[in-house]
């Protein structure tokens, strides 16, 4: 290999060492990521849709453990496990009814960098805070989502822990339970990924003329595997790679809802239109082959919106005109809080204190809650039950 070309390997190695250093720094003292977020009583009550009094009474009569002790004169607030327990005890769990179908949402777009992994991880943690049981499936060999959950895909994850063992041409697993990992969130599990998941794509190319039947078999497999797992969850989130390949196609078919993120820029808009048109063709071909895809909703979400940038407003207007009600009305705002949290391999929902100013943090959190809440509403409509907002009214009057 020529000396200049061999530099590429050196660059990769230097980069890998830096990623591991950053990860260790982010997750000290252990290399495992913790979860330190806490919720004040007012916030907890709001999340549960009840009064603070109801929580205090339950703490007094012993149904709930005593409120967490104060530290330096300030109340510590409730941890995520405490909040979940509170939901159980006070009957405020949003979990679906047994006969409601779990939402299996593909967060998909063939355009790279549109915010798929950012939306997937924030959506997972939003749903977790709301009390749902969530499974996140990292289907992308770039493994951004796996990283955001605190794993180093290169060092902590082997190929056998990814979807590979199940989707490979020579599968060593017959169901997906082997791949499910707990995360620092008690109600969020993860199927991780790493670079070697890409072997699934290579194998198909190598299968030659058998490729079509291998492909069809994999489609069915991922769907079956996920349906079998989904019984344990309310929401399953799929983060596929930004390209049309075997895994992307299998994800398309395995999902029962589609969320397409895109930034308010012309290249994202144009690529997303191409994605939709390609998807339409693929879905028709699949239907022709007897593979039916059934989505309970298809929505686009603007994933990085800067209201101060006139070009963003212009492109958003174009998106509104083109997509009408399929474009979710509340965009995710572009925020330094999101990119700074990503540097720490976290979502904004995992920050126990603001990274930027308190105002920036609050604004970002409020926007994320509102944007993610739109998706929660869609999921709950599919379950044919009252929305959480209605429940809040019910609890308040009870
Ligand atoms: N709302 C936002 N505000 C600020 N930064 C954002 C926002 N959304 C995404 N980003 C940043 O944009 C970059 C790309 O986002 P992300 O990795 O989620 O995209 P992706 O579609 O998953 O990319 P890929 O196609 O490579 O999988 C990341 O650095 C992320 O932190
Ligand atoms: Mg990604």
Topology:
Elements: H1 3-26, H2 41-48, H3 52-60, E1 70-71, E2 74-75, H4 80-89, E3 103-107, H5 116-129, E4 134-138, H6 144-148, H7 164-167, E5 181-182, E6 188-191, H8 199-206, H9 211-230, E7 235-239, H10 246-254, E8 257-262, H11 266-288, E9 298-302, H12 310-323, H13 336-343, H14 358-383, H15 388-397
Parallel strand pairs: 3-7, 3-8, 4-6, 4-7, 8-9
Antiparallel strand pairs: 1-2, 5-6
Helix pairs in contact: 5-14, 9-10
Bound molecules: adenosine-5'-triphosphate and magnesium ion (MG).
How many distinct domains? 2
Q: What's the arrangement of strands in the largest beta sheet?
A: 5-6-4-7-3-8-9
**Describe the biggest sheet?**
7 strands, mixed
Overall radius of gyration: 22 Å
What is the correct CATH architecture of the largest domain? Answer: 3-Layer(aba) Sandwich
- What is the helical fraction, as a range of percent? 40-55%
Q: Quaternary arrangement of the chains shown?
A: single chain
Runs in which pLDDT lies below 50 for 5 or more consecutive residues are 386-398
Task: Give the termini distance in whole angstroms.
Answer: 74 Å
The averaged pLDDT comes out at 89
Q: Please tell me what the overall shape is.
A: globular
Count of DSSP H/I helices: 15
* SSE arrangement, N to C: HHHEEHEHEHHEEHHEHEHEHHHH
Counting DSSP E segments of at least 2 residues, the number of strands comes to: 9
**What class do helices, strands and sheet pairing give?**
alpha/beta
CATH superfamily placement of the largest domain:
P-loop containing nucleotide triphosphate hydrolases
What ligand molecules are bound, each kind once?
Answer: adenosine-5'-triphosphate, magnesium ion
Q: According to CATH, what is the class of the largest domain?
A: Alpha Beta
Domain AAA: 104-282
InterPro entries: AAA_dom, DNA-bd_dom_put_sf, DNA_Partitioning_ATPase, P-loop_NTPase
Protein name: Chromosome partitioning protein
Organism: Sphingomonas pseudosanguinis
